[in-house]
Each structure stands twice: as C-alpha cells, then as structure tokens.
Specification:
Shape: elongated
Helix content: 10-25%
Strand content: 35-45%
CATH class of the largest domain: Mainly Beta
CATH superfamily of the largest domain: Trypsin-like serine proteases
CATH architecture of the largest domain: Beta Barrel
Number of domains: 3
Largest sheet: 6 strands, antiparallel, barrel
Length: 586
C-alpha cells in the first residue's frame, strides 16, 4: 500500500509545489481588537475556518520572542475551547499571515490561545536541511558515562524526562506544551517510560492506518501527522500545517521535542472527531498517507520536506506464548539517540502487555540482538519472573541508551530483533546459601563452591561449581561473592577504572556483562588502584570529559577491589540474591 502512495506522490504534490508563499504581517503591526480568520480541520479532511479577535501581544517573553493572544470562535470551539491538534493553524488578518495558533490553556472557560508570530517560525526554520542529519553531532546529556554504564548493566533506564530536561517548556519558560500522540491505546506499563515529558496519549483512538479516512489537503490549515512508530503499532503526533513554500512545509508553531535536526515520516492526516474535555479538548486524528519527512524541530515549530523519505529503525518482535502460539510483529521506530531507547521500551512493553496479561504466575524471557552498521551485534538476554512487562522492556531501553549516548560516535542502528517467551509459571530462584569445603584456598588450584538455591515453592537444591585461584593472587584475605549478575554489578566488586576508548570497547563490555539469569562466583582481592570505576571511565576524550564532569582522582593510591577469578552457573531462570564469604589465600 505504501508503494502505491509513493508512486502517486508526485502527482499529489504537483499543485502544492506550485503554491506561492502568502503575504505576512509583523507583530509590530498588530493591535488589540483586530479581527481575523484561521484555518484548521475539525472533522475528516475538510479545512474549516474559525474567527478570532486579538486580545494583545505579549512582547519579550523570551529574548526576541513574542506571543499574540487571541479569542477564537466558530465551529465547535464554544464547547471545546482551543483543541490539541489545532497547533499550527494559520491565522490571517486582512489576508496576511500573522502566525500559527500554538498555545492553549487547560481548564479554560473560553477559547483563548496564543499565536506564534510567523516571522519567528520562518527565522528558526529557515535552515531546513535537504538531507537527513549525519552521524554527528553527538547527543551528550549532562551526566557522566558511569551513570549510563551502570544503568545499562543493571537494566535500569535513565528517565527520558531527565535526558530532555529543560526542552519542553513554552517560549516564555512557563507551562509545558502538551504534545498529543495518537495511535495505540497504551497500557500503564508502556506509558511509564514517558513520565515527566509533555507527551499526552489520547485514548479512544480509531486505529491509525493508511487509507483510514479522507486526508486533508496539503495546504495551510490541513492536518498532518508525524510518526514516531509505524507498522503493527502506530504512535503519531498530529498538528496543523501553517505554511507551504515549494517543498518546504512548516507546522505546529511549537516544538515536537526541540531536538533540532531529526528525521521522521510526515503523513497527511484525517480527523475522526473533535473531542470536548473539561481539562484539554483534542482532535481525534490518524495518519493517512506518507507525504514527506520532518527534518527540523525548534521551539517555534517544526519543518519538513515534501516528497522526502525518513529513515526509521526496524524493530522485530517474536512473541512465544508458552509454545501454544507464536506471534510476529514488525515495527519501525524513530531514529534518535534520546528518543529511540524509550520508544523501543514502549513498543516492547505494549506488545507483551497486549497478549500476556492476567492473574497468576508469569515468567518472561528475552533474547535477541541489536545490529549496528560496521560494529559487532549486541546480544540481548534477560529473564524476569513478573506480571509486568516493564522490567524486561527497561532492560532493552537501558542497553540502547548505553549505545546511543556513548561519547565516541553516533551509531547507526540497522535493526533490533527480539524474541520473548512467556510461560505461565514463576521461574524465580533465590540464593539461599553459599559455602566452600575449606576456608583456605591455594594458588594454582580449583576452589569448589557449593550454592544452595530455593525456588518460589520453597524447594531447595544444592549445586557446585569451581573457581580457579590464579598464581598471581596475593597472599592473605580475599572475598568470595556469589550472586546474580545485577546484584553483583550493584555491589561493584571491581573498583578499578574501566578503560573504554571507542564504541567497539563499549560493545565488548556489553556482550561480556553479567546477566540476571545466571549465578556468578567472583573471587575479589584488594589491590593498589588509581581511580574508582564509579568516578571515572578511562579513554574518554578530554573535551568530552570537561562536559560530563569530574573524572575522579588520578593520584589516588588506595587499595581497590579487583576480580581475580570468576565462575558461572547458567540457570535460565531469574536469580536473586548475593552472599559474601571471607577466605584466606595461601
């Protein structure tokens, strides 16, 4: 179906590309009491008109930024107020474009809103790139690499609201602009990855799909959608077209995420209904057909190119329902260092929650890989005994954050392939005890370790594995630590600096990291060290380190713990627990 749309796209755009840019009116010419008309879609694909009266102009809300306050009327606005989805509606006085309706107020009793001046939109969006953003510049949040590293190794995502900090406010630095996202009716687990962001998920959607309704014209006042996720699930931000000039198209009058250059599919859209709400009314919108690509995201609006194609990250999920049914899903998600991990976690959580719900015991195992251009694949493996899909989805998101937020280069993700197996039992094991046959260990010999495991029903079993004590071990005290991978990482048994000089170094660290479905035995000793892993990662360029904060005390010569031997006991079920024993090495 998409190929048919792409073949027809040149004909569909012919009249649009010939359109002439309208005359504009500056903020300095606007006075209270002036009246005008706006254009937007209230139902289907038909562009309707609404009236407005200028209440005043708020100057210098931010350096060089103003907002035109208007009271609107017409259509359903008396009942709904300003609707989410009207953002970008072009407003005209005497036939001249003054800007885009962009700001509404929750719980408003009258349809009063703010218009972003068109001059500000044109100024911020004039550098619209013809090509998608390259692999640089890097996206570096204000946090040290150890924060991202430990989050990845323990399967805990850094909240997206923290990574986006300070990018979601209005031009005056005040109330956040809610960004309505339509498509999948997300569960609470899937929504949790967006906590603290201005994204608002619309309930009661009609099912967004190509050809699902009449598309509005590609002209000012028409409805457009920006797909964050497409395929077997759709997540789409919808708004109104403000301005079209040749291939360039401006929308919204406010940011999507204020990410600067980006690359997202731009679709025509239709409106199923205008939904009244006491809090904030909205248009029930759905994408219809691809029309181009979004390439720029600024505080004064977003801009794209008609006829262009966006690059998305393929995501494949196979869902094995206890061997009874196997379901396969194909998605495409936004390609961006900050947003991609949260989108991948959202899609995985939503896929699992849709088909794996109910009371009783439940275990989920995750396997797969992340393929990167020119790099070895990152292997994915985790298991959780939990009804909620969040922990396993957060594990995927944390791994992706470690890859995309690296300080060396922006990776190209060729695809993500995952298999989730759901079992109606609780595959959970606790480490109930650890002992050795002797309290002293000899260098150059194996040390038998006995581990007692207990399942959820209280049944115990004892198993044994060997740790080899190297000849290089220091005489004296050592600590035997036995636990699951996540607990051991949290305990930080190896306090030496981690040396990473490139993205391949980081990928090797990921692929060799400890998992939560194995029992590990670590023999740890105190040795002279030069810096704590929690404070520093070696190999980060000085220019990057200065942005990320302190890299620790390089002159320290205190004793630091070091892993001198390790063993592993694969269990293929979730393991929890950590036990430490003191030994003497002779």
């Amino acid at each position: 179906m998409l190929n048919v749309f792409r073949r027809l796209l040149p004909l569909f755009l012919a009249t649009v590309l010939a359109a002439q840019a309208p005359a504009t009116m500056s903020v300095q010419e606007i006075r209270p009491g002036m009246k005008g008309q706006g254009r937007t879609v209230f139902l289907g694909g038909k562009i309707d008109r609404f009236d407005f009266e200028v209440l005043g102009v708020q100057h210098n809300l931010a350096p060089g930024r103003s907002l035109i306050m208007v009271r609107a009327s017409g259509g359903p606005l008396a009942e709904t107020g300003i609707l989410q989805g009207m953002s970008g509606s072009p407003c005209y006085i005497d036939g001249k474009l003054i800007g885009a309706l962009a700001i509404a107020f929750p719980f408003e009793k009258e349809p009063i809103g703010g218009v972003t001046p068109i001059a500000e939109m044109l100024d911020q969006l004039r550098d619209l790139p013809e090509l998608p953003p390259s692999r640089t510049p890097l996206i570096l949040p204000k946090m040290g690499p150890p924060t991202v590293l430990k989050s990845a190794l323990t399967g805990q995502m850094i909240p997206m609201a923290l990574l986006l900090g300070g990018t979601t406010s209005t031009p005056d630095g005040g109330q956040e602009i809610p960004m309505p996202v339509f498509g999948a009716n997300l569960t609470a687990e899937a929504r949790s990855f967006w906590t603290g962001t201005p994204v608002s998920f619309m309930s009661g959607q009609t099912g967004a799909s190509a050809g699902g309704g009449p598309a509005s014209p590609l002209e000012p006042g028409g409805m457009a959608a920006i797909n964050l996720v497409q395929g077997d699930m759709v997540m789409s931000g919808a708004g109104t077209i403000t301005y079209v000039s040749g291939k360039k198209i401006l929308l919204f009058g406010h940011q999507l995420f204020n990410l600067g250059e980006l690359d997202l599919p731009l679709w025509s859209a239709t409106v199923a209904a205008s939904m009244p709400s006491y809090q904030s009314s909205f248009k029930l919108a759905a994408p219809v057909a691809p029309i181009g690509a979004l390439r720029l995201d600024r505080s004064a609006g977003v801009a794209g190119l008609l006829g262009a194609e966006a690059r998305m990250v393929p995501l494949r999920i196979g869902l094995n329902l206890g061997g009874k049914r196997i379901l396969n899903f194909k998605y495409e998600i936004m390609d961006h260092p900050i947003i991609t991990p949260s989108l991948a976690a959202t899609v995985l959580a939503q896929t699992i929650s849709t088909y794996v719900r109910g009371q009783g015991f439940q275990s989920l195992s995750l396997q797969g890989n992340i393929k990167l251009a020119g790099q070895p694949a990152v292997e994915i493996e985790s298991m959780v005994a939990d009804l909620s899909a969040n922990r396993i989805a957060s594990y995927l998101g944390a791994i992706l954050q470690f890859i995309t937020l690296n300080p060396f280069e922006r990776p190209v993700i060729d695809g993500i392939s995952l298999t989730v197996k759901a079992e109606e039992r609780l595959d959970l094991t606790a480490i109930a005890g650890v002992r050795t046959l002797k309290a002293r260990a000899k260098r150059g010999q194996a040390l038998p370790v006995l581990v007692t495991l207990q399942n959820i029903q209280g049944v115990r079993e004892t198993t044994t594995f060997n740790l080899f004590v190297p000849q290089s071990a220091r005489l004296g005290r050592a600590t035997l630590m036995v636990g699951d991978g996540f607990s051991l990482i949290g305990a930080d048994p190896d306090e030496r600096a981690v040396e990473m000089n490139s993205l391949p170094d980081m990928l090797r660290l990921l692929n060799n990291s400890m998992k939560n479905n194995h029992v590990y035995g670590l023999l740890v000793q105190a040795v002279p060290g030069l810096g704590l892993r929690g404070s520093r990662i070696e190999g980060v360029p000085p220019s990057i380190s200065s942005l990320l904060g302190s890299d620790g005390d390089a002159t320290s010569n205190t004793l630091q713990r070091q892993i001198i031997s390790r063993g592993v006991l694969p269990l293929e079920r979730e393991v929890r627990g950590l036990v430490s024993l003191e030994l003497e090495i002779e």
